[in-house]
Amino acid sequence: MSDVVNEAVAQLNAKMDGAGFDGTAKFAIEGEGSIIIDSDGARASDEDADVTLTATTDVFKAILDGEMNPTTAFMTGKLSVDGDMGQAMKLSGVLA
Q: What is the pLDDT along the chain (96 residues), one digit of tens a residue?
């Protein structure tokens, strides 16, 4: 996995503080790899999930760093969502 994915996994696990996520979500970072978030936390993986969010490295970093709102990124076409929109909405709490 890339350094971007490894750094993002560490950052997501710190944000979740061991809480996990009810469901499965995948972040697909274009050109870097994928991250799965589930009840066990975040890890580098490309398995199937309830919802997949796809973005460039810059957009993903901006969302993680709190510089970009995930909803705004979606509405402006910078973040694409495929799958269960309810799960995607629950992720906003994890990313905050």
A: 689 899 999 999 988 887 778 899 999 999 999 999 999 999 999 999 999 999 999 999 999 899 999 889 999 999 999 999 999 888 877 776
Query: What DSSP string runs through 26-70?
Result: EEEETTTEEEEEETTEEEE-----SEEEEE-HHHHHHHHTTSS-H
Q: What's the whole-model pTM score?
A: 0.89
Burial of 23 (0-12, 13-18, 19+ CB in 10 A): middle
